[in-house]
Amino acid sequence: MDGATHASARRAGLGKTAISANGSIHLNSRIVIDDEFLSCRSSVRRFRRGEVIAGAGVLVDTFARVHSGVVSASTMLPDGREFIVEIIPKSGLIGELEVLRRQTLSLEYRAGSNCELHFFEGRLLRDMYASDPCFREKVFSRALARISELELRIIANAASSLQSRLASTLLRLSAVYGKDAANSGDELIISQNDLAATLPASREKVNQCLRRLRESKIIDGGQGKIRILNRKALEACANGAVSVK
């Protein structure tokens, strides 16, 4: 499916391969899973790129840790376009805030690549939250950090050119992929549809910007892969100091 999911699949809730699945809103700052969770019994599930893990509006009582691969969290804009709020890397958690609040998922979660997730019972998280004041403080601070980061992204998107936004997004995704020891962060595995949804912008305009960056030897790649060749030049584009034409 190359990362694309039809609207009917988005409304269906959990994907067929996910039984009681997961989800959450989080950006780069998230609750860090503690070592004691890793010794708890978990359910391991694997998803192929593009498969829906959990749909918005679903009430769940499990949270999950991304063991390998990446997961995208998205919503639908009023004009019908998909907006990918976050791409969650290896070791990231999904579903923790909804489990704590006993709320339905507000975003759809989809495999951004072939990935493996380890699912845990929600009561483990709630028990720690109830018994550990330090953990409660961590949850609160992470939630505030997420809100702040999302606000900054929205403001930056409103004030920046598409080229600057694209360069900033590629750098942000590079940091996400770089969390995996097997990836230096210079190679991003993301479809053009997903990249456009992350900005968000039309695929045609994003392709034009990507072509200019390739012609300037700042990036390279194709078929769902982008390789960063000149990080300093990409940073200059993100800051608006350089405009590639």
Automatic annotation (TrEMBL):
InterPro entries: cNMP-bd_dom, cNMP-bd_dom_sf, Env_Response_Regulators, HTH_CRP, RmlC-like_jellyroll, WH-like_DNA-bd_sf, WH_DNA-bd_sf. Keywords: DNA-binding, Transcription, Transcription regulation. GO terms for molecular function: DNA binding; DNA-binding transcription factor activity. GO terms for cellular component: cytosol. Pfam families: cNMP_binding, HTH_Crp_2. PROSITE patterns: CNMP_BINDING_3, HTH_CRP_2. Residues 45-146 form the Cyclic nucleotide-binding domain. Residues 160-232 form the HTH crp-type domain. PANTHER family: CRP FAMILY TRANSCRIPTIONAL REGULATORY PROTEIN, HTH-TYPE TRANSCRIPTIONAL REGULATOR ARCR. This is Crp-like helix-turn-helix domain family protein.
